[in-house]
Amino acid sequence: MKIFLIASLLISTNLVFGAGISKVIVVYKPDKTVSVIHPLKEAQHAGESINQFLQRIYSESVAGTDLEGLPYDIMNKSGLPDRNNRDAWEGEQGEGVTTNTVKAAQINKQKRREELIKKRMKKNNRDKAEAELISEGKIEEE
Question: Which of 15, 58, 102, 128 lies deepest, with the highest CB count within 10 Å?
């Protein structure tokens, strides 16, 4: 019974989310941040080569958006950094995608700050919670 349930879950998950491919399209913005397009294999037309498919998906995805006309690369998913610091990803065409460690540290510090304030807010209002955490040395004053 457990095997059937697991198999059913895997099948239904695949139907809902679709099967991906090993390639992604990375669009490079002027501020060095990136947008990543993850094409679904199911969107590939019969007889369409992988390169034709990726070019079509890119064109359809960026048409009429602020990404239109920006440089991009097609790369393997495995070339992307760890998603834990996705908001700190940066890159340039031909150079790939990296994690800006300074930006990642700032983002993580802010997330930690907000988590601590949110926990404390269960008892107090936000301003009071923030003031208490600052006075306890758990967060820095901004």
Answer: 58
Its pTM stands at 0.69
Instruction: Report the sign of the C-alpha dihedral through residues 41, 44, 48, 54, in that order.
Output: negative
Residues 6+ apart with CB under 8 A from 105: none
Q: Which residues of 96-115 are buried (b: 16+ CB within 10 A; e: fewer)?
A: ebebbeebbeeeeeeeebee
- Chain length of the chain: 142
Query: Which residues is 39 bridged to in the sheet?
Result: none
Which residues face 37 on adjacent strands?
25
Please write the tens of the pLDDT for every residue from 65-104. 999 999 999 999 999 999 999 999 999 999 999 999 999 9
Backbone angles phi, psi at 25, to 5 degrees: -110, 120
In 1-142, alpha helices (H): 2-17, 50-62, 101-121, 126-135
Residue 91: both structure tokens together: 């890159």
Task: Tell me the C-alpha distance between 36 and 83, whole Å.
Answer: 12
